[in-house]
Amino acid sequence: MATRTGGEILAAALVAQGATHLFGVPGESYLPVLDALVDTGDRLRFITCRQEGGAAFMAEAAGKLTGRPGVAIVTRGPGATNAAIGVHVAAQDSTPMVLLVGQVGADMVDREAFQEIDYRRMYGAIAKWTAQIDRPDRVPEYIAHAWSVAMAGRPGPVVLALPEDMLSAHADVADPARVEALPAPADPVQVADVLDRLSRARAPLVLAGGSRWDAHACLALAHVAERWSLPVACAFRRQDLFDHRRADYAGDVGIGINPSLAARIRNADLLIVIGERLGEMTTSGYTLLDVPSPRQALVHVHPGADELGRVYQPAIGICATPGAFLDAINCAPGPATAPAWLGSAAAAHAEYEAWRAPRPVPGDVDLWRIVRWLDERLPDDAILTNGAGNYTTWLHRLFRHRRPGTQLAPYAGAMGYGVPAAIAAKLLRPDAPVVSWNGDGCFQMNGQELATAAQLGLAIVFVVIDNGMYGTIRMHQERTYPERVSGTTLVNPDFAALARAHGARGETVTTTDAFAPAFERALEHRGPSLLHVRLDPQALTMSASLDALREAGRRAQG
Ligand SMILES: Cc1ncc(C[n+]2csc(CCOP(=O)(O)OP(=O)(O)O)c2C)c(N)n1
Ligand SMILES: [Mg+2]
User: Fold this and answer.
1) CA–CA distance, 398 with 380 (Å, rounded to integer)
2) What span, in angstroms and rounded, lies between the C-alpha atoms of 383 and 517?
3) Is the CB of 441 under 6 A from ligand 1?
4) Cβ of 395 less than 6 Å from ligand 1
5) Residue 472 alpha carbon, nearest atom of ligand 1
6) Is 539 in the pocket of ligand 1 (CB under 6 A)?
7) Each residue of 478-535: pLDDT tens digit?
8) CA triplet 89, 426, 395: central angle to 5 degrees?
């Protein structure tokens, strides 16, 4: 076999793992990798980003969408530090991801050479595993190991440092075999225990979340719900696991949860939590379930052993993937007689629909009507992306996801996710309509990637909900420090003109009725388009105007 450079060995190892895109900003620290990519062609495409935060978010979104690590590649110190946000999201969101980082050569390591960082220390607290590959002949081993760690148990990010001299050195070594996620089957004795508890329950509820779901596991969940007449809720920003149009869908368990659903969870006698790690946002700040011993009997199914009993002590903790557990339940006989809770799924769904009912809002743009229109208009495979901010609440509450892989949203609550995630989605799912839903603050965190979308000619519809502020923080401000506005006002560019300057289509929407025709024009456009939606600052939350919040804040402060 002919010898290859470390860069060539790396590119071939990535192809062997099924990676199709490398999201990055080039750096002189990894020229041999860039050189190797000249020969990989369409098998492994380098997506030239404008900032490493965008590249890392794209890799995270690719991992979320496919269940296999999305890959970002960035240069030393400055690139590595810019990329940290994506690694943090991958960690909190349990997403498989691999970040490749340039590193100074062995000839000058530990001198604090130009842009040198010890990545093991820097990423030690947020990555699942951080390592440095010092020899080209060990690249295949490290790549296989990285894929294995990123996907096994609770998935997460792996960071691999690539010393410059290693990348240009030669070796004669074979490519690694494709690594699959380690299966985690459900213990049959525990499954029998769950079925026994279920047969004796009065008010059970299923909560689905986390990662390691696939289309089959989602089908199996629907089947379990059907056979056992169970209400099913989805965790914060994991809404695409269950078809919202089904008569047994109970709603999402996130920020601003439907009070009826919160009550239903509090009053449940058996909670079957599948895949979800029960983070702060899904538990209403650890109040829906008591820490450490919930009043509800908790069946906690999670593929990561460390997550079981970490916050909540379960009645039954099952270390299994969602699909393995659900298949095991489906292999057993269903209920012998009509369950005691019959009708509770339909009641929960009625409460969910009531929670979606439109309400009057201040101003000329009504996001209730706009999102409900989008919900009717978009096909089942449409992918929606968003970052963090009050503007996301309309989407999460009113849009009905129907299929897995249609929601890309940060469980970690990072702003700036919606633009890069949409780019990854469109590259990986070119036939699906992709709608990137952004606030004015959120959009400006990674809006530079609009240039990336334009360069690639990606037909994405970017929506910017412009209320002239970091609205979420202003909301908290008015509640706690009424009338003392500090640091939350935004004077924004003309976003439609900004889009046009990028060669994208740009339109401004100032009324509810103007949204639908503008959106149709955007959908028809063959490249990227942007809708700049001007929202009345009074429409600060779904339920209360800015003035009403301020007034409530004043009363609360006495
Ligand atoms: C990277 C990052 N920085 C800061 C925050 C804190 N934060 C949460 S929401 C928010 C405001 C979002 O503003 P915008 O996108 O305009 O949405 P709005 O709330 O106005 O609808 C901020 C600053 C965050 N979540 N992520
Ligand atoms: Mg805003």
Assistant:
1) 15
2) 20
3) yes
4) no
5) 19
6) no
7) 999 999 999 999 999 999 999 999 999 999 999 999 999 999 999 999 999 999 999 9
8) 60
Alpha carbon of 514 to ligand 2 centroid (Å): 20
Q: Are 53 and 79 spatial neighbours (Cβ–Cβ below 8 Å)?
A: no
Rounded to two decimals, what is the model's pTM? 0.98
Is 134:163 a contact under the CB 8 Å cutoff?
yes
The pLDDT score that the predictor gives to residue 2 is: 79
Using the structure block, give the residue that is written with the tokens 């919202």: 244
> Long-range contacts: 500-506, Cβ < 8 Å, 24+?
502/450, 502/451, 502/454, 502/528, 503/454, 503/527, 504/450, 504/453, 504/454, 504/462, 504/528, 504/529, 504/530, 505/529, 505/530, 506/530, 506/532
Which token pair is 12? 């071939």
Q: Which two tokens stand for residue 436?
A: 């990137």
Is residue 390 within 6 Å of ligand 1 at its C-beta?
yes
What is the predicted pLDDT for the residue at 1? 56
Is the Cβ atom of 477 under 6 angstroms away from ligand 1? no
| Beta-carbon count within 10 A of 529 CB | 25
Q: How far is the CA of 446 from the centre of ligand 1 (A)?
A: 13
Which residue numbers in the chain have pLDDT < 50? none
Tokens 């062995």 correspond to what residue?
Answer: 106
What string of DSSP letters covers 7-68?
HHHHHHHHHHTT--EEEE---GGGHHHHHHHHHHGGGSEEEE-SSHHHHHHHHHHHHHHHSS
Closest CA to 319 of 307, 303, 297, 306: 303
Task: Output the CA 415–ligand 1 centroid distance in Å.
Answer: 6
Nearest CA to ligand 1 atom 9: 389
Backbone angles phi, psi at 538, to 5 degrees: -65, -30
Tell me if residue 416 falls in helix, strand or coil. coil
341 φ, ψ (degrees, to nearest 5): -95, 10
Residue 557: its pLDDT value, please? 86
Ligand 2 center to 181 CA (angstroms): 39
The DSSP H or E segment spanning 340 is: none
Question: Relative to the CA of 416, which ligand 1 atom is closest?
Answer: 1
Query: Rg of the chain's alpha carbons, rounded to an integer?
Result: 24
Given the DSSP bridges, would you call strands 460-466 and 434-439 parallel, antiparallel or unpaired?
parallel
For residue 388, the ligand 1 atom closest to its alpha carbon is 9
Q: Which atom of ligand 1 is nearest to the CA of 442?
A: 15
What's the pLDDT score for residue 558?
79
pLDDT confidence of residue 42: 92
Q: Residue 479 gets which letter from DSSP? A: H
